Amino acid sequence: MLSLLQRILVRLLLCCAASYLLWRAFGPVGLAISSPIFAMAFARPIFDVLSGARRTAKRLALISVEGRYYSHRGQPIEVVEDVEHHRWLRLIDVRKLLQGLPQEAVLALQFPQRVQDRRIRADALRDYLSKSQEGDSLRFRNWLERELLSPTTRLRQRMGLPDVALEAKPAAPAQGANEENS
Asked: What does the pLDDT look like over 153-165, one tens digit per residue?
């Protein structure tokens, strides 16, 4: 497939050749007849360049928040993904939506290794919200599962990484422990 610049050059050469032939055959009237040929040949490439410029400008404007900006009910939430493809939410943003959320120290005791540097891992927040019955908490938990956890769970499965839900479950007792209690 020819690039946009190559297509424009080919169209320009063909239009110039057609214009030259019409000029040779009909004189100055031939040049007037050839002007619609230029319009038809260059309308599509001009629109392609303009739409590409719009997309490029939008991409450049949003590159600083690419993949990190999420919003729940109009409230922005900064989300960062680590190398193991866990998503971490900034606690300040979450507290704006869930006023009853405990302090970072309390959450860190409840979810060790899943609360760090004023951020909470999305699966830990889901586990915390699973106990709540408030409407706002339920709506936020559903949004959290749909927008953040489901995509990362699928990605982690494709990459062969352990499932987040399996990590959160306590380890099963050893076989010898069952036999001693009998």
From this structure: 888 888 888 765 4
- The 10s digit of each residue's pLDDT in 70-118 is 888 888 888 888 888 899 999 999 999 988 888 989 999 989 889 988 9
Give the residue from 42, 5, 2, 9 showing the smallest Cα distance to 34.
42
| Beta carbons of 93 and 75 less than 8 angstroms apart | yes
What is the C-alpha separation between 89 and 148, in angstroms, rounded?
10
Distance CA 34, CA 23 (A): 8
Cα(76)–Cα(93) distance, integer angstroms: 7
**Tokens, residue 171:** 């380890």
User: Cα separation of 171 and 40, whole Å?
Assistant: 70
Instruction: Write down the pTM of the prediction.
Output: 0.57
Helix (H, G, I), strand (E, B) or coil at 87: strand
User: What is the DSSP-derived secondary structure letter of residue 115?
Assistant: E
Instruction: Give percent helix, percent strand, percent coil of the chain, each to the nearest 5.
Output: 65, 10, 25
Cα–Cα distance measured from residue 98 to residue 18, given in angstroms and rounded to the nearest whole number = 69
Helix residue spans in 63-103 (DSSP H)? 91-97
